Write the C-alpha coordinates for this entry.
Amino acid sequence: MTKIRAVISDFGGVLTNPLWEAFTGWNETVGADPGVLGIALQKAAEERGEHPLYALEKGKLTEAEFTAAVEAQLPPEIKLQGFREIYFSHLHPNEPMVELMRDLRGRGLRMAMLTNNVREWEPLWRAKLPVDEIFEVVVDSAFVGMRKPEREIYELTLERLGDVRPEECLFIDDVDVNCAMATELGMTAVHYVAPEQAIAEIERAVGD
Protein backbone atom coordinates (compact mmCIF):
# COMPACT_ATOMS: atom_id res chain seq x y z
CA MET A 1 0.00 0.00 0.00
CA THR A 2 1.40 3.41 -0.98
CA LYS A 3 2.21 5.64 1.97
CA ILE A 4 0.29 8.92 2.20
CA ARG A 5 2.69 11.86 1.93
CA ALA A 6 0.27 14.75 1.32
CA VAL A 7 -3.15 15.86 2.57
CA ILE A 8 -5.45 18.01 0.43
CA SER A 9 -8.34 19.45 2.42
CA ASP A 10 -11.45 21.40 1.54
CA PHE A 11 -12.25 24.56 3.54
CA GLY A 12 -15.98 25.19 4.02
CA GLY A 13 -17.91 22.35 5.63
CA VAL A 14 -14.74 20.46 6.59
CA LEU A 15 -12.62 22.98 8.48
CA THR A 16 -15.76 24.94 9.40
CA ASN A 17 -19.21 24.02 10.64
CA PRO A 18 -21.62 22.81 7.90
CA LEU A 19 -22.30 25.43 5.23
CA TRP A 20 -26.06 24.87 5.47
CA GLU A 21 -25.91 26.46 8.93
CA ALA A 22 -24.60 29.70 7.40
CA PHE A 23 -27.33 29.65 4.73
CA THR A 24 -29.94 28.99 7.43
CA GLY A 25 -28.59 31.98 9.34
CA TRP A 26 -29.10 34.15 6.27
CA ASN A 27 -32.65 32.83 5.73
CA GLU A 28 -33.55 33.62 9.33
CA THR A 29 -31.96 37.07 9.26
CA VAL A 30 -33.73 38.26 6.09
CA GLY A 31 -36.95 36.29 6.62
CA ALA A 32 -36.53 34.10 3.53
CA ASP A 33 -38.20 30.71 3.23
CA PRO A 34 -35.74 27.79 3.05
CA GLY A 35 -35.03 27.04 -0.60
CA VAL A 36 -35.80 30.52 -1.92
CA LEU A 37 -32.13 31.20 -2.66
CA GLY A 38 -31.72 27.87 -4.42
CA ILE A 39 -34.75 28.58 -6.62
CA ALA A 40 -33.37 32.03 -7.50
CA LEU A 41 -29.98 30.49 -8.39
CA GLN A 42 -31.65 27.93 -10.64
CA LYS A 43 -33.74 30.58 -12.40
CA ALA A 44 -30.64 32.74 -12.92
CA ALA A 45 -28.78 29.70 -14.30
CA GLU A 46 -31.57 29.00 -16.79
CA GLU A 47 -31.63 32.64 -17.89
CA ARG A 48 -27.86 32.93 -18.23
CA GLY A 49 -27.14 29.47 -19.59
CA GLU A 50 -24.52 29.07 -16.85
CA HIS A 51 -24.88 28.59 -13.11
CA PRO A 52 -24.03 31.97 -11.52
CA LEU A 53 -22.48 30.39 -8.43
CA TYR A 54 -20.10 28.32 -10.55
CA ALA A 55 -19.16 31.43 -12.54
CA LEU A 56 -18.60 33.35 -9.29
CA GLU A 57 -16.42 30.57 -7.90
CA LYS A 58 -14.32 30.60 -11.08
CA GLY A 59 -13.80 34.37 -10.86
CA LYS A 60 -15.80 34.89 -14.07
CA LEU A 61 -18.38 37.00 -12.22
CA THR A 62 -17.69 39.63 -9.59
CA GLU A 63 -19.62 39.42 -6.35
CA ALA A 64 -21.61 42.50 -7.42
CA GLU A 65 -22.54 40.90 -10.77
CA PHE A 66 -23.55 37.69 -9.02
CA THR A 67 -25.66 39.60 -6.51
CA ALA A 68 -27.48 41.49 -9.28
CA ALA A 69 -28.16 38.31 -11.29
CA VAL A 70 -29.56 36.39 -8.33
CA GLU A 71 -31.42 39.26 -6.68
CA ALA A 72 -33.36 39.76 -9.93
CA GLN A 73 -34.85 36.28 -9.34
CA LEU A 74 -35.63 36.74 -5.64
CA PRO A 75 -38.95 38.00 -4.23
CA PRO A 76 -38.84 41.84 -4.16
CA GLU A 77 -38.67 42.00 -0.37
CA ILE A 78 -35.59 39.75 -0.19
CA LYS A 79 -32.24 41.43 -0.81
CA LEU A 80 -28.80 39.83 -1.14
CA GLN A 81 -26.99 42.97 0.01
CA GLY A 82 -25.05 42.11 3.16
CA PHE A 83 -25.15 38.37 2.41
CA ARG A 84 -21.45 37.80 2.95
CA GLU A 85 -21.44 39.47 6.39
CA ILE A 86 -24.41 37.41 7.58
CA TYR A 87 -23.01 34.22 6.04
CA PHE A 88 -19.58 34.56 7.65
CA SER A 89 -21.05 35.53 11.02
CA HIS A 90 -22.56 32.00 11.08
CA LEU A 91 -19.38 30.25 9.91
CA HIS A 92 -17.01 29.01 12.62
CA PRO A 93 -13.84 26.91 12.77
CA ASN A 94 -14.32 23.16 13.15
CA GLU A 95 -11.73 22.94 15.91
CA PRO A 96 -11.20 19.14 15.98
CA MET A 97 -10.47 19.15 12.25
CA VAL A 98 -8.27 22.26 12.41
CA GLU A 99 -6.25 20.68 15.22
CA LEU A 100 -5.88 17.46 13.21
CA MET A 101 -4.59 19.43 10.21
CA ARG A 102 -2.06 21.19 12.42
CA ASP A 103 -0.99 17.85 13.87
CA LEU A 104 -0.61 16.28 10.41
CA ARG A 105 1.61 19.18 9.37
CA GLY A 106 3.67 18.58 12.51
CA ARG A 107 4.05 14.91 11.53
CA GLY A 108 5.75 15.99 8.33
CA LEU A 109 2.91 15.58 5.84
CA ARG A 110 2.67 17.98 2.93
CA MET A 111 -0.47 20.09 3.38
CA ALA A 112 -2.66 21.72 0.75
CA MET A 113 -6.05 23.38 0.77
CA LEU A 114 -8.30 23.14 -2.27
CA THR A 115 -11.39 25.34 -2.02
CA ASN A 116 -14.22 26.48 -4.26
CA ASN A 117 -14.52 30.06 -3.08
CA VAL A 118 -15.22 33.69 -3.97
CA ARG A 119 -12.48 36.15 -4.81
CA GLU A 120 -13.93 38.98 -2.69
CA TRP A 121 -14.39 36.63 0.27
CA GLU A 122 -10.72 35.67 0.63
CA PRO A 123 -9.92 38.01 3.56
CA LEU A 124 -13.03 36.79 5.42
CA TRP A 125 -12.46 33.06 5.10
CA ARG A 126 -8.72 33.31 5.73
CA ALA A 127 -9.47 35.20 8.96
CA LYS A 128 -11.35 32.14 10.26
CA LEU A 129 -8.33 29.80 10.36
CA PRO A 130 -4.51 29.79 10.71
CA VAL A 131 -4.37 28.99 6.98
CA ASP A 132 -0.72 29.78 6.26
CA GLU A 133 0.47 28.17 9.49
CA ILE A 134 -1.00 24.82 8.39
CA PHE A 135 -1.13 24.82 4.58
CA GLU A 136 1.89 25.33 2.35
CA VAL A 137 -0.29 25.34 -0.78
CA VAL A 138 -3.69 27.04 -1.14
CA VAL A 139 -5.61 26.65 -4.39
CA ASP A 140 -8.68 28.91 -4.50
CA SER A 141 -11.03 28.34 -7.45
CA ALA A 142 -11.78 32.04 -7.86
CA PHE A 143 -8.13 32.84 -8.57
CA VAL A 144 -7.38 29.94 -10.93
CA GLY A 145 -10.52 29.95 -13.11
CA MET A 146 -11.60 26.38 -12.39
CA ARG A 147 -13.46 24.62 -9.61
CA LYS A 148 -14.00 21.21 -8.08
CA PRO A 149 -14.90 18.66 -9.37
CA GLU A 150 -13.06 19.69 -12.56
CA ARG A 151 -10.04 17.43 -13.02
CA GLU A 152 -7.72 20.33 -13.88
CA ILE A 153 -7.94 21.98 -10.45
CA TYR A 154 -6.83 18.75 -8.76
CA GLU A 155 -3.95 18.45 -11.21
CA LEU A 156 -2.97 22.05 -10.51
CA THR A 157 -2.92 21.33 -6.77
CA LEU A 158 -0.63 18.34 -7.33
CA GLU A 159 1.60 20.46 -9.54
CA ARG A 160 1.90 23.13 -6.84
CA LEU A 161 2.68 20.54 -4.19
CA GLY A 162 5.40 19.17 -6.46
CA ASP A 163 6.98 15.70 -6.32
CA VAL A 164 3.80 14.06 -4.98
CA ARG A 165 1.90 11.42 -6.91
CA PRO A 166 -1.92 11.17 -6.73
CA GLU A 167 -1.74 7.81 -4.94
CA GLU A 168 0.36 9.49 -2.20
CA CYS A 169 -2.43 12.02 -1.52
CA LEU A 170 -5.31 11.96 0.91
CA PHE A 171 -8.21 14.19 -0.18
CA ILE A 172 -10.90 15.39 2.27
CA ASP A 173 -14.17 17.05 1.20
CA ASP A 174 -17.80 17.20 2.33
CA VAL A 175 -19.12 16.93 -1.26
CA ASP A 176 -19.29 13.42 -2.67
CA VAL A 177 -18.69 14.34 -6.34
CA ASN A 178 -15.51 16.16 -5.33
CA CYS A 179 -14.31 13.01 -3.56
CA ALA A 180 -15.28 10.90 -6.57
CA MET A 181 -12.99 12.92 -8.87
CA ALA A 182 -10.11 12.61 -6.37
CA THR A 183 -10.61 8.84 -6.34
CA GLU A 184 -10.75 8.76 -10.14
CA LEU A 185 -7.36 10.48 -10.21
CA GLY A 186 -5.89 7.85 -7.89
CA MET A 187 -6.08 9.66 -4.55
CA THR A 188 -7.46 8.23 -1.33
CA ALA A 189 -10.61 10.21 -0.50
CA VAL A 190 -12.42 10.77 2.79
CA HIS A 191 -15.96 12.05 2.41
CA TYR A 192 -16.37 14.26 5.48
CA VAL A 193 -19.65 13.82 7.35
CA ALA A 194 -18.72 14.49 10.99
CA PRO A 195 -15.48 15.07 12.92
CA GLU A 196 -15.40 11.65 14.63
CA GLN A 197 -15.98 9.75 11.38
CA ALA A 198 -13.55 11.82 9.33
CA ILE A 199 -10.74 11.84 11.92
CA ALA A 200 -10.93 8.04 12.27
CA GLU A 201 -10.81 7.55 8.49
CA ILE A 202 -7.97 10.06 8.06
CA GLU A 203 -5.90 8.43 10.81
CA ARG A 204 -6.43 5.01 9.23
CA ALA A 205 -5.33 6.33 5.84
CA VAL A 206 -2.28 8.17 7.13
CA GLY A 207 -1.12 5.39 9.45
CA ASP A 208 1.92 5.87 11.68
The chain is about 50% helix and 10% strand. The chain has a mean pLDDT of 95. The CA atoms of residues 60 and 145 lie 7 Å apart. The beta strands are 6-9, 110-115, 137-140, 169-173, 188-191.
